[in-house]
Amino acid sequence: MGGGLMQLVAYGAQDLYLTGNPQITFWKNLYRRHTNAAMESIEATFTGSADFGKRVNCPISRMGDLAHKMYVKIKLPQVTITGPAVGTAEFRWLDHIGHVLLKAVDIEIGGQRIDRHYSEWYHIYNQLNLPTGLKDGYNRMIGNIPELTELKVVKAQETLTIPSYTLWVPLQFWFNRNPGLALPLIALQYHEVRITVDFRDKEECYYFNQQTNQKNGSITMGSLDASLYIDYVYLDTDERKKFAQAAHEYLVEQLQYTGEESLQGSQGKVKLSLNHPVKELIWVLQKDEWLTNTGAKVVVPTSATSPGTPGVQVNVTPPYDQDQLINYYKGRQHFNFTTDWDDKYIDNLFFTSNVDVTTAIVGETVRSQNASVPRTVRGNPLVRCRLQLNSQDRLNEREGSYFDLVQPYQHHDNVPAERGINIYSFALRPADQQPSGSCNFSRIDNATIILSTPDKYQGKIKVFAVNYNVIRVISGIIEPTLQSLYQNQTVRPDRIELNLPNVFRRDNSTFTASDVARFAGLPYVAVHRINDVGPISKFAPTLSRYASKPKTIIIVVDDDTLYPPDLVERLVAGATQHPEAIVTAHCTNHYTLNDTPCDLVEGFKSYLLRPAHFRPSFWAFLAAALESDECYRADDFVLSAYIHTAKVPLLRLDAPAPLKTPQLSYGFEGDALHRQQPLEDPQTRYCGCFLHLQEKLPVSLGLRARCAQTQFEH
Questions:
Q1: Where are the domains of the chain?
Q2: Other C-beta atoms within 10 Å of 133: how many?
Q3: What pLDDT shows up at residue 401?
């Protein structure tokens, strides 16, 4: 018997836990078929000038059905450095220049900002999550390469040109990272989606210095050239239709930033104003001098009469002659969250001429040759820290190394090589989209980080929180109408009431629970389930609900029309001036420029009424009218017939121009809530309803029809 067969027969009770009733095999490959789709990267342009210090935006066109990954492409300008008449000039782009340039990036949907990311966040996120195998390529994408960041020294009266370089900075919003969360543009066809970018000021992106008193050297550079590359996804016909018509609910990640707060001394307390279930807190400390020229630390000679000899560190504060010392840090350090300077670019750590030193703080002695300068061991400025929730310790005080070493090791793929990125995770795997833990800060009245720093510390603390949120994308059907009636109005209604039939008389269809939930999820919408009485269902049940409040203003609209932002304001003003009348923005009559009595109200343009306008006899009138299928489908004609019978004034409001109410793609006799099913020509319905009312109801309508010509006149 072979050794392999011996292994097979060596089978006992313990093996039942491993191979008893097997559920998988390693010897048969399985796969699942996927829906047909294609992806294409398309360049989009920013509106305005995408340059240093500018705020520009890029509307996301609907060239595809979904939007997935996005990259900001930035072409750094060519730089020409001219040396001074005497001395030298130095220039370099700052480290991680791609991150530095993107001061802030927003994603907006329908004019509402959904998320915002910052320069610091791009750096922190990649320090924690970027796979090791991608780091070299990513550094080339964002310009963190020697060709850009190494100091270029130009001698007197010489010229050096640094060529332009193209950066590709990937955005990190929820839909960029996970294809299953790709932005459903096909379901947002009536919302504008926009990416807005704040570019950092030019002077904050590079280092330039002249080692001379004359300061007649210069640098010349052009403007940035930036655009946005979007990976569009094209769906096959069936899936595209589902995305367009169905409601979507996404569990997304958002970034909260509390803003920077000042720290002075060795103790600090930071109050966290956060909301939503938070899965991770990240905070960094940064000395003020890392971003300014004040308090620059230099190395001076031990003897003021012997420049160039080994020296000791001192803190020099303005005023001082910068031309007589070598700038220590060679530019702002936007992402230095440690206790000391990044000495990567230390250059000749001594004064270039004799300087009187009045105050010296003994520090590390260094050699005068740059190549021999030891790299500073930069530590975490967070000495100790604890987290309190509702004045109770959520986490006992711990050393700073627990937050920038142990926590990243435990919860992320990387422990950042650079110290000072402090995290505390409420989730097992905070970088994964699958939830694995969170703390609901919406239910926390007060949250505080209490920390200690080195003595005489002066700087800022920045706290970020990654939270979960649910974004509901109601299908393009009806939701644009709701937005135009509430969010876009100059005077907002108290609420919007939707009367949804339990079963449609037309085709016996119904709304599913998810259909109802998607409407009820909007805070300004009240959903009522009713018996279907045709299109007049949109206001008759509401009229009944407010019968005891006769002065209540009810504005009736269609569900397949976009309404202007002054609609509510205009109708309410008209009703205030004419409380006895039902007022409308449009009805069948010749157009004039004053408040005009008219005959046939038309709901797609909207009208305003009050319960006081209707007598109790209205319900008997309605029941008799709805015995006719033509009247069941002709709500405008039935309402107009009753208005004239009850002698209620019907006024079209004074208007300087016709009311513009564009109908949506499913509009005009194909309404949204009633499954987009078209009806026959309205005048045919009106004629049939007129004949029914004339025959069945002993009322004078004040209207008569010429059915053969399907025309109406007063």
A1: 37-246, 265-286+380-472, 477-713
A2: 8
A3: 94
